[in-house]
Fold each of these.
Amino acid sequence: MSDSIILDLPPFALFFIGAFVLLFLRGKTGSTIASIITVAVPIVSFIGLLQWQHGSFNEYQLLGLELTLIKIDKLSLLFAYIFHLAALIGCIYALHEKDRVQQIASLAYAGSAIGAVFAGDWITLFIFWELLALTSVFLILARRTEASYLSSMRYLIIQVLSGVLLFAGALMLIHQTGSATIRALDLNTASFSLDDLAIWLIFIAYGIKCGFPFFHNWITDAYPQATPTGTVFLCAITTKVAVYALARSFAGADMLVTIGLIMACFPIFFAVIENDLRRVLAYSMINQIGFMLCGIGIGTEMAVNGAVATAFNHVIYKGLLMMSMGAVLYRVGHVDGSHLGGLYKSMPKTTIFSIVGAASISAFPLFSGFVSKSIIMLEMIHSGHTVGWLLLLFAAAGVFHHAGIKIPFFAFFAHDSGLRVKEAPTNMLVAMGIGSAVCIYIGCSPALLYSILPYPIDYSPYDVSHVVTQLQLLFFSALAFVWLNLKGLYPPELRSTNLDIEWFYRRLFPQVWTLVVRGAGCFSHCFKLGGVNIVNGLIRFAEKYSEPPAVLARGWGVNSMLLALLSLMIVVLVFNYL
Amino acid sequence: MQSDKHSSNDQSEQGFFDRPSNIQWMLRVFYSICAFLVIIDFFIHRHIETAAEKLPAFYAIYGFVACVILVLIANQMRKLLIRDEHYYENTESSSGKDSDQ
């Protein structure tokens, strides 16, 4: 460790310090300084990070628990590297953006992610887990539309719910084991009993954050609503922190293979019929996380390597695609496939960067996806999941179909929409250029990526068989696209909403709730009315029988009184002796 | 939001991809590559890990069929799932309007 104060700070600290300083900057000079800080922080922080060795640091005590603020190993370092790179690219991409809210949120969000991957205990992880939610929500709110506001509230509720589940699970686990240290949890032997509830709670908390089926709609809801620059940060960070957490604690969980396969396959159907191209990318993100979860679920060293390598590459190529769509959104004002097309004339550089991102996500040879996704596919076969391998192959063809072809085709080619806009701002182009360079560099020379993977790897993606089979898969997927288009069978881009699981909480539950409230109001009204009528009836009854010569108005004779008194005394006596 | 955009009706501003002859030429190249990829499948030694891969040009057939099935199913899904683009806004907007599609 160096003696320098900056280098002694926790690896995430500079991001929070930068965000804090940004709070006080005002005016034009302040704006310039803010821009410099946003770009400088990831660079300086990354240099500082390189000085850290593996091990546990900054241990502290809280409420009698031994907590570890920083625990560094190869797995956490890899994710920290990629978050630094994503933050740098994102901050360059957002340089034209003078909105201080977004600048502060972006830095604090990236810092939270780095804090989360270095957390050595459940409590520290929980704190950064919630900070991720609280900081990132501003990137959605900053769009400043009613739709984005509503979306951000749903996002916040779901993210905080994930944090609450994590906290509950963590407390139960600490109570059971007496240790707060993050460790591997065995889901395969976990039963549906109270003893293993903690494991399930943590698993579901992670699952919500990385978009498990039924919990996935926060991704497709919030990401298309965020600002053009905000989505670039969002798509890089939250889900990858969850992937890291799953790789840390649930590697080898058989259930993850099944969940991963479902996630890899079902979103591609939605992506094909979706019109909002940023939402297409959000569905594509779920598909890619599905690949990663399969790798983590298989759990061998090679498979986990494949999963985290895919996560690393995914941050860059999905970021690149999101940046290209963000540039279109920034210039055109929307990213509806139905109303785009022909933009390659106005935005040629953005078109090229988008194609690089599309080639990378599709795992074209010489692009980054090719060197990582195949590791998972291969491990799928080696672990005996032949059907799973066929499904992943289907998903790989599908991802080329919707992210590789659909995104560039409908945005930049297809029919000429007549839109003539300026090319993306220079800073956006620089950011996309860096992303493209990283995609191509890793694709052509994967050794550097392989060297930072958590386990030793002996794998060469470039052999004739792999290259030819991958090209066959991709070219014939493209042929299907061409054929379907020529036959008029390809679904046209339509401005629409496609129902998904979110329908339950965005449509059904509000409507049921409205019915319940109306029903309760009606019941309350009827109850009051009925109560008043009953009381009125009683009053009338009392009036009727209390007026002379009715029975209640008659005076009691002495004999009757004595008889009643005697009866009462007998009852008291009997009860006294019982 | 940067809004320096305008629609152009100037048909003379034709791009490379607006000319049908260019598209035809590109498609021919594309079909040739596809054919080439199938032909070389018979000449190279593929690593075979599963029984399915023994089928000649398995990856090509699988990729084509998978994508056609994907799109055909997605077409049917759309019929079931499609709603107006403002579908959720009607129940969620602050005005509280609740008009169904």
Note: Chain B touches chain A through 64 residues (CB under 8 Å).
Amino acid sequence: MAVLVIAEHDNRNLKPASLNALAAASEIARLGGGEIDLLVAGKDCRAVAEKAAKATGPKRVLLAEDAALEHGLAEDLAPLVVALAPSYGHIFAPSTSAGKNLMPRVAALLDVMQISDISAVVALDTFVRPIYAGNALATVQSNDPIKVVTVRGTAFPALSAEGGEATLETVEGKGSAGLSQFLRAELSKSERPELTSARIIISGGRGMQSGENFRLLEVIADRLGAAIGASRAAVDAGFVPNDYQVGQTGKIVAPELYIAVGISGAIQHLAGMKDSKVIVAINKDEEAPIFGVADYGIVGDLFKVLPELDAELARRG
Amino acid sequence: MKALVAVKRVVDFNVKVRVKADRSGVETAGVKMSMNPFDEIGIEEALRLKEKGIVEEVIAVSLGAGQCQETIRTALAMGADRGVLVETDAELQPLAVAKLLKAVVLQENPGIVITGKQAIDDDCNQTGQMLAALLGWPQATFASKLAIAEDHAEVTREVDGGLETIRIRLPAVVTTDLRLNEPRYASLPNIMKAKRKPIAILSPESLGVDVAPRLKTLKVEEPAKRQGGKKVGSVAELVDKLKNEARVI
């Protein structure tokens, strides 16, 4: 048996989450689960596959190029994964919006349960996964012949994108199922690092009061090379787009430094960031639950504290 | 067309769950239970489709123990027309739920099925996609906007990089994200009216579905606690600690 990892990419670049999924797959390989194959399915994406072949981990990169695979529609990608499945004991994908969309469809077509968002590999058939917004950790054992798994990226340090020597093979796409069609994407453009792989994140909550006030976070983010995140309250209020949301049902992050500004710290938000190495909280409410998880808390008005922080960072260089 | 909405009874989102001493799960006895928040959004969306004249009937389906009738009543009080309960005390995992929902769908022939994108108890995020797969239908997950025109729907989805809009053929499965709508509160007259709305009771056996779990929960534990709570007196002290103590900047 072997492990199949579904690569995430935009037909140009491999997304970092793929390297975290490879890391989880390499634990399966170490436990005797066989070699790792990486599937790069898309349109005109050979360059991605060639780059992916240099990543540590995979033995083979399977390249499927088909117009129907351009946008990763689950209806068209799942049949390809299902066709490949009989050679594998494990099929892994990152627990990203794309992976979450695809993998349950694959699992149901194979008549197996999916194991969602694993945070540890215990044995070939046993995994740890957070439940109840990370307030409990369940260890689950699967009795299905194929383990279809999504991987929580923050729990598995990424394998290197360099140093591997996988062979490249092509496989056939399955064409379009004719069920769904991609129309358009409105993707946030930013020069800042991606939230889920950023070393430092500064996030704003309802306390920011408006989208314009996120400018106060941006200047600090630029000084620190940080990504910008937000609580659900800030997204619901329309301050920032949905892809900024950190939390149980948004993005799960675990940077070296997480700075929470004007965020009270609902359990749903804590679920998305409490594995960060160092947490700083800035909030005027001394009783805010965010202080309970913060390594360094500042009680104060963020509209005074943020400019001070910016000045202090500038002064200290 | 009919809209079928799946509603799950879960521990209320405000409850801080406790792991049981025997590590078999989390404590649910005496804990406040509510409808999964994403499913409330699903009911609301179906009701809005009905108010626009696109949907004629909204059916709320729940699966599990007898108390799930309360969850269905909540949906009926919001305005759903009738309920279906697939009653069982067995542990139901998403694959089994999807198979049961498929059986109900084949009886009811809805034009659209709406589920929450995930339940806030097991955080699986699977059922809608699995149901779509089993029916051979398209799926539009994590929806933040839904527009239906004749035999298809345009759905805007919340994805990691922002928003994506797809067109899907109907019938289809749509799973809700937070920004799809804000669910209404049930009014007192509607709560009274809901008591007279019908709920059909089915069982996995009557639907011919094997619900045996595929995953065995070996143990449930509390995650390691963070040692937080320290405060600093000034911004200068904070920057100093981040540089010299934590060494993260």
Note: Chain B is about 30% helix and 30% strand.
